[in-house]
Input
Amino acid sequence: MNKKIASEIAVGIIVLFAVIFGGVFWIQGKKSSENIQQLAPTSIQESVKQQEIFNDNQQQAVQDIAISGYKIVQVNNPKVKFSFEVPESWMTEIRNAGDKTLTPEEKKSFMVDNIQSDKDYYAKMNLKNIETNFNKYQKDFFPIASVADYKYISYSDTNWQQVDFFVVENIKPLEAINDIKNNLCKEPCESCNTVKNTKIREIEPCTDIPNKCITGQQKISGFDSNFIKMGISIYDGKQNADKLCSGGSAYYVTVNNNIALRIAKQAQGDEQYEKDFEHLIQTLRIINQ
Output
């Protein structure tokens, strides 16, 4: 059974790699350059003012006030403390933030809640084996935080409207972005059309289209960041995320010479989801660095 679990985890890693969640493992696109522009509606400007950073002898604090309809998520990782806003309805997961040691029971709850494909298996697993499995995947597979516009967080397969956060060390963000571009972006996306008649509904043979990856730089919370947004497949003339071309994106925020915060959006969502993700980016604050 352990072999099965390892296989499931490996599949999850490969899938999430395919939607660019960093390097050669998950750790983790809009179609046009219009989507690179920073979103700055009045509501976000007000939120930024409400979350103003106060610098005093290198100490920073964030006011715990969010704009109406949003909530503040604060992640107290020992290496990178940060906060951001998401809609109140979004699911959040910060138990693996690293600010406290989880008990065996808490680790079990974490895995049952978040590894959807094997939740029943983990529910029956004894605590000793829970410890072994959790510790094996904690650093490189489990994010330190996740949010999702969905009914659950998932680390076992692509969760289309989920954003994950990782602390990565001793890497050069631009090189990581270029590695993704030079590998995954060479894989084509697809364009398919649905054929309908009175008796059957079938898909015509799909044609390959370029994987239009977009890369760039952006200031986030005053820190330099490099990002990549993957291409997305087309079905019936409309953008449609699939596991190879999800429209997902990855941001590497350079915190210092040794540490970066990786923000991995698993896939491109609808208009409201994209606006909420931009709100997350615009309200993200690095604390106490």
